[in-house]
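Below: protein 1.
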Amino acid sequence: MHQTFDAALGIDLLHANQTGADHNRAHFDEWGITCFNLMSSPGAGKTALLERTLAGLHHDLRMAVIEGDMTTELDADRLRQYGIPVIAINTGRSCHLDAQMVAGGIHTFSHTYDPTQFDLVLVENVGNLVCPAEFEVGEHAKVALLSITEGEDKPLKYPIMFQEADCLLLTKMDLAPYLDISLERITANVRQMNPHAAILPVSAKTGEGLEAWFSWVRHRCQAQSSALAQPLQR
């Protein structure tokens, strides 16, 4: 009885969250905005990647960030230095952002700025390799980060994150010479979980691989923009 109740409760929570996520995505689609959900364990380099992304793509895309953290606005303050809107969400004891939290961020964003003037919203989720992948927030694509310092087995031990990812960034590649690690084995483990995700080795410190990441971002934004425009052409 107890196990059945827990399972049913989990399904109800995910169903309610999905309804909220669909509502959030409808807003993004109405405004012509693409949304990416960035997920990883703590310390994998999400904020550092966002800093390089904001600096590298500001001429191409009008961007905003929804920044999730359990406490503080330390990461949000780092990103605000790039002169873009950053909406901070503190989750308290929750280990992930959910659709309702992001809806609050969207509400703040749309009442402060004209959302139709933006191309891309980047959601930085709470550092966790499990929960964020299960709770959609209205994103058009999920981006997972895996630091090569975390080991080769993480895709097998935390499969949901890697199954759900549209793009996987292997971060901190500048440390590769100092680690006993095989990128081929990491890739093979990821492919067991997800044969289709783009896998991009990058270093926010040296810039290695960032052009490939920028190209992926541009392509997905262009594809989303084209998809939204199609019904208008019929």
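Below: protein 2.
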Amino acid sequence: MTPAERLTRDAVAERALRLGDQEGVEAITIRRLAKELGVTPMALYWHFKNKEELLLGVVDHALADVRVDRGAGDPWQEQLRMIIEAALDVMRSHPCLPDLLHAADKTKGESFTRATNDTLTLLADAGFGLDEGYWVATYLLNGVIGLVGAQPESPAHLTIDQAAEWRRQKRLALECLPADRFPMMIEFARTYEREPDVERYYDFGMDLLMSAVEAMAARAKARG
């Protein structure tokens, strides 16, 4: 069996996802992937007719595990948190995914559509109407993207010593601000004296997102 015959749609999508993580979404092309996989571009056209289909396929592959356990009897809050955490986990694993979600028409993908449908179902259980539920789902997606984009950590390519120096420079820059105008920013500079607790950051961010939804759900229930 030749490499082209062994090539599956999932294998192509997974290699494209890793390529995007390494070099950015712009690197994901049929020609480049064919070279990476050791096949001709024609071999990939069996799975994806053009770049638009390729990007959509990569998004669909990445989000495959972002779903609700339909057999679970957990409250809607717990199930909603699980699906949002699943989205967060995959975005943390694949830095290119937020850009892919903008580059591809994700609404045409089965995984994204299923995840959205699952989320809307849970939000309906919470008491939201369909339009409000969709607004909440969009808020949660963008909230997850924002959390990953704002992760409090030094650039990934730095060594431990370089990261410590990067934090020191950030601290010094803030401490040089005028104390009479930016007292809180100067105080905040002290946080750069230690490595950030990334997991605490994400737990806090998830609590922040979910508490907003739960508070709105309580208001919706009170109205209805």
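Residues 160-193 form one domain.
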